[in-house]
Amino acid sequence: MLTQEKQAPALPETDTMISGSQALLHALSVEGVDTIFGYPGGAIMPIYDALFDFPGNMKHVLVRHEQGGIHAGQGYARASGKVGVVFATSGPGATNLITGLADALIDSTPLVCITGQVFAHLLGTDAFQEADVIGITTPVTKWNYQVTDATEIPEVLAKAFHIARTGRPGPVLIDITKNAQLQKFAFQGYKRCDHIRSYRPKPIVRKEYIERAAELINSAQKPFVLWGQGVMLGAAEQEFREFLEKSGIPAAWTIMGAGALPSDHPLNVGMLGMHGNYGPNVMTNECDVLIAIGMRFDDRVTGRLDKYAKQAKIIHLDIDPAEIDKNVKTTVPVWGDCKETLPLLTQLVEKKQHAEWLAKFREFEQQEIDAVIREELFPTSGEMTMGEVIQQLNELTKGEAIIVSDVGQHQMVACRYAKLNHTRSNITSGGLGTMGFALPAAIGAKFGAEDRTVVAVIGDGGVQMTIQELGTIMQSGVDVKILILNNQFLGMVRQWQELFHERRYSFVDIQSPDYVQVAKGYGISGRSVNQRADLNDALKEMLEHPGSFLLEVMVTKENNVFPMVPQGCSVSEIRLK
Amino acid sequence: MSEQAPIEKQEYNITVYTENHVGLLNRIAMIFTRRKINIDSLNVSPSEIEGIHRFNIVINETEEVVSKIARQIEKQVEVLKVYYNTNEDVIWQEMALYKVPTDIIAEKAKVERLLRENGARAVVIRKDYTVFETTGHREETDNLIKVLQPFGLIEFVRSARIAIIKGSDGFNRKLREFERAEPGQDAIENEFLNSRDKVFTM
Q1: Which ipTM did the prediction report?
Q2: Structure confidence at residue B180 (pLDDT)
Q3: Which of these CATH numbers, 3.20.20.70, 1.10.287.70, 3.40.50.970, 3.40.50.1220, describes A207-360?
């Protein structure tokens, strides 16, 4: 697990005869790939055969299901900022990638997935393990391509990496027929791609829009910044911070953006959205200039659109022009890479402090603490809450850990309360809301950030969707801390049934296996606690344990996540209870 | 959301310049199907530039929807450029073929008169059937159906619409900019930002 010196094997000389499979691995190695998540099968066997004794330090992590493989690739990419690479075979291997592709597309995660395909002469014959992978994956990939001739491989792979990581990043899938994997051809070298004529990943920034945005910001009395994952994808955390600190504007985050500014930064006023903080939601409808940076106004963030920030002038910084004006009409669009646009904006904004305005956020925060947070984080009686588990975890990790969350109530609690000191520390399935994401994503995150502690916070529903990846942990020896918050319900659905369906708890009562025994079966140490008195000690044991550890915490069954913006309501109608 | 854009649906002609890439037709079509928008007409042809394809797509939608669709199409890696225009902004034509029994046509209608009055021409005249062709706007090709129906119209087919944009100076100059690694301000000329209602270029 320790970082080894990465050395790429020397490329074959020009005109050397190599196979398509070897060309593929050389491409990966030139692109700096150090870890592949995959699962072999009939149609990808030539690639696996070449991988068997391929020189260099490229690791292959054998997952237990291709969905686990692709979520691991996502976790790796999100933690490291590099492109995640996934191998799968044809047919069912490839179709098992679909959820992860859709997740990576909506959350802008750079991936290159390689799928084996039947021999080219069998395409369209309903051959064994043949599926129309290009057809199936088209709506869930940024780009895909089927290789039927080995000579295409170097150029196609170079394009794949360029497309995956530039502009608004996303998943790319390359489907390679078995004959192309086997075919020998005269290698003509590998040239990394930096230009495709039909693809402009980012525009030249237009200064006049920066100027107009700066004018608006400088004249604002109540400016408010919303930021999303774009800040991290653009590696613009420092530029973002400088912009905020000069302009003195309070800033709130989407769950995808969490961590780009440390949790305890004085201008960080909290989380947006349906289960976000009270102040940011209410103040969205109070501010006079709203500055959205690298976020896409998801419906879970905006609530009812026709009552969303109608009083405000909107400045939207985004690299994807299709996002500008998509959901919220902007006053000034700033189309570009925020790594470039933010410094330009910082130059032009006046140094200010919006003390009174910021204080209002803190007033709302105090109300939220009194109504919700204190009870959630520091209960003294009754059953344990999810919030107090995260709170105690914070105290032990001091905000240094990577928190990977699954989907549901525990996800909202983890995102709301996890203390994050560093960027790329909150890994969650934001757009697609994929249950089962966390366990494999945490495995990938650890491979992508080997020197950091990775804690997967998972509900009792989600963990059972990809629990087979415990096998991946067992075999790879990766060190992942698994924290199951077990409320014996599919909690978020139950909460909605309670609030909007007259407590008709339809099929949300889910049973769990004995997780500690299951972990034990995989050779992973574990513990289960249901008493507050044991919580701190158990968390400590988990964090201090050498290697992976599974901790199940039994939490109160019918707790609800508040505040909440009910569906169809405006953000300012957020409910504290 | 947009106050200025006309709210009513109308026909829009979407022109897409693309690379020649297997699967791109599917990728573009899915942008419509995902939003449950029916494509009224779709034509793929060469363009004024060798190797560059040109899609003509017709949908009946509001401008707001069309402008968002245009951006989603332009976002695809192999798409060079998307324009959308109302019918007033384009010269457009559709071609139609009509097969009718020759004996009835010859007996009951005067073929010459039909051709003259409907701007049609006879493509094939055989003993058993005659095929007429006409090119024009939808009303014109529709009209000839009505005319021929009483004479036992056997088969009718109409092509997709093709359209030339009145205000366009072609794509050659833009393509040269696209091919440069560092495009000039010109290629990045941003109609999208310059005149927001026109959307959009890069």
Answers
A1: 0.93
A2: 78
A3: 3.40.50.1220
